Amino acid sequence: MSLFGHVFFSEVLKHSVFDAKGEVAGRFADVVVIRGEPLPKISFILIKRHGQLYQAPWDDVSIFSRRILSIQRAADSLEPYDRDDDLLLARDILDKQIVDVNGAKVVRVNDVRLEGHNGHAILSAVDVGIRGLLRRLGIERRTERVLTFFKFSLPWNLITWNYIQPLNPKLKTITLTIPRQMVAALHPADLAEIINQVSREEGATLFTDLDTKTAAETLSEVGPQRQAELIGGLDVERAADIIEEMPPDEASDVLGDLPTETAKDILERVEEDEAKDIQELLAYDEDTAGGLMTTAFIHYGPQTTVGEAIERFRTDAVAVESVYQIYLTRDDQELVGAVSLKELLLAQLSTTLGSIADLKPRTTSPETKQKAIAKLMAKYDLVALPIVDAARHLLGVVTIDDVITQFSASSGRRKRRGT
Amino acid sequence: MTFEPTPGQDTPKPRARRAWRRLVLLGAIIGPGLITANIDNDAGGIATYSIAGAQFGYALLWTLVPATVALIVVQEMAARMGVATGKGLAELIRERFGVVVTFWLMVGLFLTDMGNTTAEFAGWAASLELFGVSKYVSVPVAAMFVWVLVVKGTYRMFERVFLMICVVYFTYAIAAFMAKPDWVDVARQTVLPSFRFDSSYLSMTIGLVGTTIAPWMQFYLQAAIVEKGVTREQYWGSRIDVIAGSFMTDIVALFIMVVCGATLFPAGIRVDSAEQAAMALAPLAGEHASILFAIGLANASLFSACILPLATAFYICEAMGWEAGVDKTWRQTPEFMSLYTAFIVIGALIVMIPRMPLIPIMWVSQVINGVMLPFVLIFMLVLINDHELMRGWTNSRAQNWVAWATTVVMMALTLGLCVTAIRGS
Question: With contacts defined as CB-CB under 8 Å, which chain A residues touch B7?
């Protein structure tokens, strides 16, 4: 029971450590952190003496407090420390970036709070606020006194360890299962923002941890260059799984940015139908309807009844990113009409789709430029625009979200593939 | 299917960095190296080159050669670190050397950049006064312009402004030809070093090198390269960019020194600012040369005033772990907004207060600059030789030699300045 209550790491770092004889054994240099339940804990403390590191197991620590640090052994019986693969608090955690899962942002570790728990010292929280900074500079108390005089208070900004996802690959050894689940529960757009903020390697660490579905959604949200890096950094099998999970239009965007060889390798491992769709999309210029459209859409014959259509829709639409209309095709190819979901749901179950459909839906060719599509959609208030070839064969659908992304993306995506 | 990376155009980058990205988008065309080079020839730099040219003629031209080599080596290190680690220099220093060192480094950078920003506004005010515009009009207008440009500016706007600016730097080349120097003598003095050991010569040399290699440049350059997302495969492009930028910095510097060295020096006219040089040029090199000189000064001052405060606020926040970005509200990014605004407001105010001793302020900021440079270089050298960090991209032996030589020479020069200053007083 050497640590009571809590102490901040910076409050003890570099303090003198006394040995069993009451003599100075050296300076407190660092601690080794290992996985613990429920939180990571200290296994050894490291003492620096004459430029050499020595280790003392936590059980040998008799007093661990702001005022005094002492061990129950003689200084000369300490073992030297020379391992390299441990996780050290000062070296590997302090001043590094971590993900605050709760606030969905990247923060920097200013200090770490240690707490006594069942005779262990556990890492209970991370200080990412101004207090941590001031404490490290040794002026927390003074600043507080001055501010109190002016009736201001210093805010606390602690994140409990439960809400932390480390970015350092080394830290994985003590990563808890809870944050991983929480990371997966973050909105993919938030995850993408986090990945964009950290270094390439750290982003890759975080990305590799995600489950396939979350990874696919996150990948759609990060910038083109990062996309290529993230997917290019994975092994081919996993990359193929993620690509398969993405809507074909976005998958083709990602593959379009990869070196040809890598893209081919990945595509070979993607399920055949999906791979065919992607291949077709890759042939189009990115700023045309062909490059924007998705080939995942719902289409039925005009003789299908509404009841039948609704029944089939329930299973067919699962894999489709967004559905605004159901398309009517003759011979499975030629576009003859479109039915909006609203019309479908309001119609009698026994009527045929052909009788409620708009038989002359607006369409355009795959060569249409993205600006022209936006104009068309704005003019006719469309949320989805079917893309057909000269024989009116339905090739794909451009939905409103594709067009909006194009505009908000400051032209980045437009130029990307070039020729 | 072709692979054509267009760096800096990542689609949904975090909103927090949009303003920064704007700066960097600008870099996607011209490149961080060239931008850094252009900000480097700011009001303080132009003043130093003018004074050096007027006081020593072409005698100090030779310093530009080693300065260019050192500049290339140092900047290339910053660029390489950015590409290899994907992190800014401020971040790396914090992660490696801890918060205390980083904090004091940032305090120093804050002070020097505060001084630099003040110098930019002063340069702007002085050059516009040559055209008869009162500083009480020009400075508030410029401060507002800078603030609004960053908050409301668009990429297109930045692009135009920058293209214009790049052309304006050539005014010095034209002015140099108008001054009709003896080019053979210029070339000879550029390649043949000459030494003198009096305090004014020494302090001038320190000033010249100090203004060419400033600590903030490495922070700015590395952050810009990281933000641009340059990959290892694309690094050769950044290297060219950095080398071209370094040459541009020193060629512009050469022209300024030549203008003053060809006209003011033989006439025995001593100046202690760039605007005095511009004025003194009129009777000697003609009205046009004088106007070109003044336009160059105004342009350089304003351009640097746009980028310095934003860049500094950004990397201080990066080091301290504060959120940054101008399109967020004051409440979301209080530290960043306060820093950014403080730079502009304080810088502008100092210039506007009557009888404010500007020259001592500049001098102190230059000294802090010089004192900090060796530390920054040492940090960079430690970081870039870290195998775990750089993974195969550490310095070669030759690079280490030049970088250490630069560091040692800078330390010696700074020490020399102190000694001569004490003996002189």
Answer: 225
Rg (CA), chain A: 30
pLDDT(A5) > 90: no
pLDDT of residue B325: 64
Rounded Cα distance between B335 and A417, Å, is 39
Alpha-carbon radius of gyration of chain B: 21
CA B64 to chain centre: 15
Q: What is the pLDDT of residue B8?
A: 38
* Measured distance CA(B301)–CA(B304) in Å, rounded: 5
Question: Which region among A18-22, A321-325, B27-31, B102-106 has the lowest average model confidence (pLDDT)?
Answer: B27-31
Which among A128, A221, A225 has CB closest to B5?
Answer: A225
pLDDT one-digit tens code per residue, A304-315: 999 999 999 998
Q: What is the mean pLDDT of residues A57-83?
A: 88
The complex scores an ipTM of: 0.74
CB contact, 8 Å: A264 with chain B?
A: no
> What are the structural domains of chain A?
184-283 (1.25.60.10), 299-408 (3.10.580.10)
CA distance B14 to chain A (A): 5
Q: Which of B17, B95, B100 sits opposite A137 (nearest CB)?
A: B100
Distances (CA, A) of B101 to A392, B70, B93, B97, B263: 68, 25, 8, 6, 46
Flag if B99 and A110 touch (Cβ within 8 Å).
Answer: yes
Check A263 against B1: CB less than 8 A apart. Answer: yes
Mean pLDDT of A371-378: 88
Q: Contact B13/A223, CB-based, under 8 Å?
A: yes
What's the rounded mean pLDDT across residues B139-146? 91
- Does A263 touch chain B if contact means CB atoms closer than 8 Å? yes
Torsion of CA B419, B421, B424, B425, to 10 degrees: -120
Cα separation, B93 vs B108, in Å, equals: 14
Give every CB contact of residue B263 below 8 A, 6+ residues apart in sequence.
B179, B280, B281, B284, B285
pLDDT of residue A417: 31
Which of A225, A266, A280 to substitute to test the interface with B, most B CBs within 10 Å? A225
Q: Which residues of B are less than 8 Å from A97 in CB distance?
A: 91, 321
